[in-house]
Amino acid sequence: MSFNVWYGGEQVSLAKVGEAIRAADADVIGIQEADGNLDAIAEAAGMPYVDPRRRLLSRWPIFDSGAGERSEHGASPYSVTGLDRDAIHAWVMVRPGKVVAVANVHLSNEPSGTGLARDGRPLAEVLAAEQASRVVEATPLAALGRLAAEGTPVFLTGDFNTPSHHDWTEAVRRVRPEIPYAVAWPVTRLLEGAGLRDSYREAHPDPVNDPGFTWTPGTPHPIQPPGEGRDRIDYVLAGGRTETISSTIVGEPGGPDVDIAVSLWPSDHRAVVSTFRVIPIAAPPLIAVTPRRVEEGGRFLVRTYDPIGEDWTALIVRRGEPPAAALTGVREMPHSYQRAIPLSSHGLPPGDYDALLVGDDGGVLKRNAFTIAARGARPELAPLEGTVRAGAPIRVRWSGAPGDLRDWIGLYAAGETDVTRYLGFVYTEAAFAGEAVVVPDDEHQPLPPGDYELRLLHDETYVVLASARLEVVP
Fold it and tell me: pTM of the prediction?
């Protein structure tokens, strides 16, 4: 299921978001716009497994395909915030020892290609805007096609903020006057060329009779802005050894092409739920720690899968240390006995740690990063230099952040009371602590001399977690 829940799922009702997921009988859900509420949405939907860095929910265990945190440096494209480019997907264990790859994405909504087209701008300008924004963001996702080419079942859910090249055809233009011309939308062409198939169009190949609009519904009151067009911009894409059985729209009662209705519908997007027949692959070595951030003295769960041998060993070490430096863990736990074990952080000082899956030869099969936070620790934020010259980089350091996907640092005029009037920002890349450079946006460069404020904000919301003052001088 792909479901944009509309700014945290609270614009109408968080309970209704859970009801929609339950009504769809979804097994794996890609959530967009969770805005700090991913765990609450999982609870409302009855989903036991959560991937906070990819905003995935599942009824089956989820394992990180990477090391549990981003290791690449610098800002990443919006589409893969907080992820290494070779670890965009998670592994979902749909059967014991068998997995499929799942990724989830939200592409930028500006500049709007559909808005430019409906405003009468030439096709070349529309395509140039797509290339400069969403195509750049979608390009890293093409790596999922390489997994699919190897036979791995791959799924990509998302709000792509762009129509499909299968939908804005000449035949559709003749029956939908709001479409000025046919467009071979480049994002969906790119991903299809990479080997990912559009499950809704596989199940409903005629875009004239089955448009499958996901933007925008009309409940609890008509929310389609004046002049806003209808489009299909939310997708469940599939590749590898997968066969599409069906694909349906979940939305408000009476909505076009809505097969599963929920009243009151809680989002400004309809959702898509697709059913597949798959041949999963054998799982690689896997280990996961839940939660990623453990309070000092608290409990955490280590879940593993070792495809080699009849038992498994999981050890806890300081970040980057070898198995010989283990501080706690379990050794030679029989597979038939249990696959997960709770451990305590009692006696472990605050800091960064790794959970290691260790092979019979003593080598590390897989690492998963987590952090132990000091009891009662609060987020902190500070500029590296309290006074900077106009045009100089604004460097910041933070610690104690929640580590949610789109925690961010905003730059404001000192004393600004309108939380939406930030002058520039940078994402923390889902890191609990780190350093970054905040760049003012184009219309505020260079910053004039004066007093400013840096704010650490939670998961693409305007909830301030910490703040610090900054002075810009000539």
Answer: 0.95
